[in-house]
Amino acid sequence: MAGHPVGRRAFIAAGTGAALAPVLAGPARATARATARATARATARATGRAPFGRHGSPSARPDARTLYVHPGGLGDHTTVQAAVTAATGAGFTLVIAPGVYRETVSVGAVDPATGLPGAAGSEMTWIGASGDPRDVVVVYDNANGTPKPDGSGTYGTTGSATTTVRTDGFTARAVTFANDWLRADHPGITGTQAVAIKVQGDRSAFHRCRFLGHQDTLYADTIALGTFARQYYRDCYVEGDVDFVFGRATAVFERCHFRTLDRTDLAGAPYGFVFAPSTAVADPRGYLVTRCGISSAAPDAFYKLARPWVPGSDPTARPMLTVRDTRLGAGIDAVAPYTNMSAAYPWQSQRFAEYRNTGPGAVISVPENRPQLADAEAERHTRAAYLGDWCP
Fold first, then answer.
1. Mind listing the pLDDT tens digit for each residue in 367-378?
2. Is 6 exposed, middle or buried (0-12, 13-18, 19+ CB in 10 A)?
3. 10: which residues sit within 8 A by CB, 6+ positions away?
4. Collapsing DSSP states into helix, strand and coil, what is residue 272?
């Protein structure tokens, strides 16, 4: 089983202080909700902890655009999607109480006439009420090859996402986004991509969030090929194995921790690849990884740092990745940190570069395999240069 020293599902079950109320029908549902609310109130009284921390409550909300989510019924909604649906305009804030929210969530519907998302859901903020991302977990378990319930085929990579964000101006703080689909549970499924979150909007920011999955964990993308989208991830944790940070967005990862997982379903290296950018050729900036760290639960040198993704939908893509001022642990193959996804698009022809990295995975033993920026070039690869007039 491709795994983690502490199983994904065990982590999710043990890492939160609340669980979702069961999904029941009719009177049974009403009784369950009443029981859950009573239990939640008793727990809050016993622990002395307000379920929404310092962020108010339904009876003391700062404004009409602040909505509260609580799995036991102490908020405005018991699911995240219900709160998102209720946010009919722009600028809503969702305060999410501790709990495991097992559901798929979609923020922003696409206008069929324009192909772009409407205003509903734009400039939305999600806040994990406790301030600890381990307490608020949005998780589901669809994969690329998972059959749809209506028999219309499988979900595909995009459809597998637990959370999908299509709107501009989305911000999340202290939330875990997860996909706990496991290969070992589904040996007959070959489409093993299982996305925790797909982010397509411009000015999307994530602070102190966690992204848990195996293959294709974090899909940092854009709404359309000709649309550039800026994204910012700070003090976040991302784990996975195959291409687990991928897509065509302009994305800055600052002070983040990337963790490559161990695998027992493969006999040898490579186990996977941390980054798989698919930057459009017209986009001057792809992924920037700065002041981060990459660690591993796998044997030394069993992971590649990156490989370029040139999707069939954009054969002109020219993937771009800059990793600078980052510690690369021993899990990264220092001799050959890059490889090809397709021989037709060699990594040497893409926009890959490094600058002032440290750690055993950053040792330069074969210089032609480690393209380095000159000092003058590095000045063009900063957070400010990538995000432009947007300051998250």
1. 999 999 999 999
2. exposed
3. none
4. strand
